[in-house]
Amino acid sequence: MTKIEGVCREVIDKTEWIAIATAGLEGPHIVATWGDYVRAVGVEDDTLTIPVGGMHRTEANLARDNRVELLCGTRQVLGSQGKPGRGCCIAGDAELQTSGPHFDAVRAIFPWARAALVVQVKETRLQL
User: Which domain holds residue 90?
Assistant: First the structure.
């Protein structure tokens, strides 16, 4: 079943950045990536692949709890009240991969990447 569709897909296609939240022993942790990075690798219906340069704390958090939430937004999509601005929250399970097809796709475009953050999308929710 398609998870990333409709307005959520439009938001991802136009967002400048994406925040990535994980849970750790010290509490919530947030990092971000550029929307262009995610679009360059390609957005599938139920999978996002994100190039990873650092994200060491994110990696440690995912080793304990693989759940993530991503948040993106753009003023280029009309919101629910007809005003510019719409967001999308994406929840799913994630892992850092250092080999395999997702990693190869990331490294082909981003040679600096040490890994690929692969998010299996479970749910999307519109914001704003």
Answer: 6-127
